[in-house]
Amino acid sequence: MPVTLRPISRRRFLTGSLAAAASVALLGKSRLSFAQERKIDPDRFAFLSDTHIHASADTVSRNVNMTEHLRAAVRQVLTAGEGQLPAQVLINGDLAQTTGETGDYANLVALLQPISAAGVPVTMSMGNHDHRERFWNALKLDAKIEAIEQRHVAVVKSPRVDLIILDTLDQTNVTPGVLGEAQLAWLKRTLEASGEKPVMVFMHHNPEPPRPYTTQPAKAIGLTDTQPLLDLLVPRRNVKSLFTGHLHRWSQDQMDGLHLVSLPAVAYVFNSKEPSGWIDCQVTDRGATLSLRTISPDDARDSQRVDLAWRA
Q1: What 8-state DSSP symbol labels residue 119?
Q2: Superfamily in which the 4-309 domain is placed by CATH
Q3: pLDDT tens across 78-115, in order?
Q4: Are 191 and 199 within 8 A, CB to CB?
């Protein structure tokens, strides 16, 4: 089921009480005027991951205030496009801090309101620190619509590429993830229906085994049914990339021309050498350019670019 915050009207934005007030304050001097029409670039996307938002805006973890980091990311998403907005914002799991409480999602939705108010949909997936039922309740979603074993799935279509969003949440606050047979069967049907159109696949958990910073952990920390997934994705040449989060790491790899991209965390990092930030993606007929947008404006890696060439 698509888990999407739809664009909201100017009237809804201005009358949204606490959420609207927080959103206006968030934008500050860079606040967008609704009198100024912003064009949507249909080939541009903003990819975020691991926001880890807590109900309290003052909460700090690993010396990072997660609310402030997301506020900065939202401001950047709305101002980084040289007059144009992305067609879609995607948050790739671990939306909440630890156990996905109702208040966490209420804070998250309030922080994301400026993006919806600007006319840009926000699609979200589930990570291991999320809780489906509390998320559904917070966003007033109907969990029975197009649900696959109570999983969130979505297909976001654009002129040049389709984005398929999967749900790897197994148990809340338990590290490994799983897709399951029903979701893999749905993915197979969806890929078959895509024909030759380029596809980018998103899921929270990294393929297992992971590529950790030091030694291989004794227990799985990524996707436990990685091989069945790769058996689906690798042979289908129209599947161009697999984006994951979970590791709080910005990296790129390939498998038979399939791009494997680990998204940076908006929140804190596990390794001090990693950036906190998000990815600005521009798609063309032949590939995609990924630009790293760091939360800290002083980070020398800000605007670092990686070009992904689509495999034939």
Answers
A1: T
A2: Metallo-dependent phosphatases (3.60.21.10)
A3: 999 778 999 999 999 999 999 999 999 999 999 999 99
A4: yes
